[in-house]
Specification:
The structure holds two protein chains of two kinds. By secondary structure, chain A is mainly alpha-helical. Chain A has helices at residues 6-18, 23-27, 32-45, 54-63, 82-94, 103-111, 130-142, 151-160, 178-190, 199-207, 227-238, 247-256, 275-287, 304-312, and strands at residues 265-266, 273-274, 296-297, 302-303. The longest helix of chain A has 14 residues, at 32-45. The termini of chain A are far apart. Chain B has helices at 12-33, 39-51, 56-72, 76-96, 101-112, 120-133, 138-150, 155-168, 173-189, 197-214, 219-233, 416-419, 426-439, 447-467, 477-490, 495-511, 514-520, 635-639, 644-657, 675-684, and strands at 240-244, 250-255, 261-266, 274-277, 280-292, 299-302, 314-315, 324-332, 340-348, 355-356, 366-376, 398-399, 521-524, 535-538, 558-560, 580-582, 605-607, 664-666, 690-691, 694-695. In chain B, the strands form three sheets. In chain B, strands 12-13-14-15-16-17-18-19-20 form a nine-stranded mixed β-sheet. In chain B, α9 packs parallel to α11 (219-233). The longest helix of chain B is centred in the N-terminal third of the chain and has 22 residues, at 12-33. The chains are: A mainly alpha, B alpha/beta. At the A-B interface, α2, α10, β2, α13 and β3 of A face α1, α3, α5, α7 and α9 of B. Chain B: It comes from Dioscorea alata (Purple yam). Chain B: Keywords: Transferase.
Amino acid sequence: MEKLEGEKHVKYILSVEKRKDDFESLVMDHLRINGAYWGLTTLDLLHKLDCVDQEEAVSWVMQCYHEDCGGFGGNVGHDPHLLYTLSAVQILVLFDKLDVLDVEKVSNYVSGLQNEDGSFSGDMWGEIDTRFSYCAICCLSILHRMDKINVEKAVNYIVSCKNLDGGFGCTPGGESHAGQIFCCIGALAITGSLHHVDKDLLGWWLCERQCKDGGLNGRPEKFADVCYSWWVLSSLIIIDRAHWIDKSKLINFILNCQDKEKGGISDRPDNAVDVFHTYFGVAGLSLLEYPGLKPTDPAYALPVDVVNRIFFRK
Amino acid sequence: MHGRPRNGPRSEESAAKAGKLRDLQAQLLHNHHNRIYTNEARAASARLLEINPEIYTAWNYRKLALQSNLKEVTDVEAIKAFVEEELRVVEAALRQNPKSYGAWYHRKWVLNHKFSPANFDHEYWLLGRLMKLDPRNFHGWNYRRFLAALSNVPEVEELMYTMEMIDSNFSNYSAWHNRSFLLSNLLKQKAQGFVSKEKILTDEYDLVHQALFTEASDQSGWFYFLWLLDQTVSPDQPLVASSWPAHGSSWVVSTNRSKSDCRLFPFESSNSCYYLPMSIVPIILYFNQPVSGVSSSTVTVNSVFTSNEDITWRPLSLAKSENAHCWVTYLKISDARSNGTSSVEISLGHSQDIKSAHGSPHTCPVLLKFTIELNCIDAEQPGGEFGEELFVFNSDQVCLPYEDFPISSFDQLKISENHAPVASSWDVETLSNEISLFKGSPDDNCKFVKLTLARLLVAYDAMMSERSPSLQKKTHSEEVLKFFDDLIQLDPVHAKFYEDQRSLVILDQVTFDKESLMKNYGRLCKLASSSHHYHVLQLNKLSLTRIGFVERLLWVQILDLSHNEIQSISGLEALQLLTCLNLANNQLNSFAALEPLRLLSSLRVLDVSFNKIGSYLIDTKRYLCSSPMSHTVDIKEVIKEFQDTEIADYWEVIFIFKELQLTQLNIEGNAVANDNLSLLLKKTIPGLIWLNGDRVQ
């Protein structure tokens, strides 16, 4: 049986941080802050967060901050958006450094994007998607500012995106997709609203995502992909149906997607690795209780000890 | 990055590509920050988006540029030219990446603003080409819904499009999904041609059969079939499924002078009794689906004990939800002024305010009656409280008398028979037809065929038992159990899913009627401190994994569920009379799993020894249990007298056990058990007398 190449993944993540000039890094340049969150969380799950210069990381995150509105961009010079504001807040809380934030201002930016029907726009340009509902709710919860939004309306909007297969889509009528399901289930979990979910119906749809090769796909009749180890599995755990899949087969699938020479994890065996799939692979293994990894919280997508620190510190 | 080979070529060509991309990105940020919206600057951003359609700041830049440039022009043709430029850039970007969120949204944004009249023919043509390349592209389907709304295309026409897509490929899940969405809208609106749900569903069954019999291993049709089945069997109207006390039952209450405690005897028997602390008799209504709106204005309780206006109904639900299967209120016997027999009448159905989660009102009139004879005795204590004496669950102590069943007739529990509206036979016939169709399927070794047959038979039995419980004696449970056993062999990856389904079938089987219950029903030999027996149900060693059919168990006082595979006890919160619960030797994997017990105010004795509490790093009940992480508990209220370390490590212990009034608890044989936890438990439960079989000092 394969084993987790933890040290090589640490090296890989640190190398990605330095590499900025090849085509692949440039294409991802505008969402560098997502990459930072994926990389840093992976390091923390591997007990290696101290490999990075914390002050440098925090000061770079703050260069992505837009003081005029309170949001964060995906990289220095890029526009603010909920997707990147959540990553910024997650990175800061990982380092226990929320005190560098103007919490009032950031949470006003987030809550200001709620629409009359309870949905959230991703930024000032108005694209609506349940992904943004998750970003907003997760972010405000970490900042202890849930009272800034109309939670009931936010929940009702997410419920209006529920489909007849038990899953959720981007907007009402949108097809169920495991990534989207994670966002909706995560947001409902954080708002204590899981009673809106038909757990057996959704659980069956989710557990049927396991393919013959042991990996999970994101929709029926699609190929397995390591990132769904996170999206599907975290949703199954939140609704307490994770025992409906074969965990050891999934562990093997993820381990087979590692680049055992240079580190990193890819979407499928023998494909090119990237930091996104490295995070979802390691976080998936953490949810599967792979030995040596810190446990992950399935709703906040952060290590459990970090989440406990947010909510149980007096 | 998806689908890129690991050791792809890294040529000079790619270095040149990288150089070009870097330049274009730098140009974009420069133009964006300096608000340069010239033709040249826009052209550079277009070249950038053609290479990298995901760079969102470039789309934002183009929106600003368009707004700024349109301010300068009034000529219709000039406006049109600007708009068409945007649509061209989007087209090029979608050729590069047909799943680019930013590109699709830019197109919607431009059309939504109606700067110039949209050419819908072109939009549908372009969409058609993209959908041909990938008929599962959900961005494309979303865009189609957007176009239909913008150009007022009726849903019936969109439904025809899903038919086209399904006809060209049965395994297009996206098309089936959209069909279910459109159909349920049309049925809800009762649109022309969609008034008869039965006719529409019959046609849909015919359609999906073609898919299922063409390619039985394809998932798409099966999910659609499951939706049709749900539409066929789900009850529209909420109904009362059972109650406690049962309709027509008679009770004798024996209490001491101060009426601090009481015992409740069935009129027919003075041997068995319910011990009721505080002299409070619960009244439980169990509905066939979660309902809201149960209150003293929708349910009238007529009794000498409490006036209806003073009665408060409480949902037995852990969630913040207003909906619950089970509602409870309490009659205070101590408020009675004199001895004698009095009747209690509970009526509902006069108001439309009891509603299902879907908004269907409860409209069937229901009248429940039972009598209570009050008998004051002089003794100081009526006795029968659990606590002082160590209670040991021991099946040898249980005797099995057939008389003195706590209710005179089991069928009285099933209220729906007398009250259910007479439904058409369409649904029963549909189920029968589907069952015979799949029994004759040539793919009878396909897991979906077996699972569907199991689901159909379960649905059929449930429907028959609700319609005519007295006639429906023979069920298909043996056949269904066989299907699940086969499925566990055939599809071991999902074994636990099938075991959970099987657990419900087993529970149905053992609680189905009086005869099956009698096999497991016993009365415990009396405690030394009491001369009476208690209502015990033994459901041990049955391979149960979860709980169901609690509406049939509302009378149970001592429940033995030991030596099963139980990992969830959700549902037990309905058993308001439960005093002793044995969950030893199961698969409970965290304290959070015990949250349903918080609602059991009568619970005194709990055995959760030899489970898996503390064996796992990931708690799958973390978000099903109330907590500060889900904003369902105000932590400050719960943790005042505890220290930081206690709270982080044992949050659930404090939260759950603080609420319970246990006198006996056993947690030995769990990984979590240690001295610190024992100390914490004693601190959390001040009334605890026995912990892990030892007397608490």
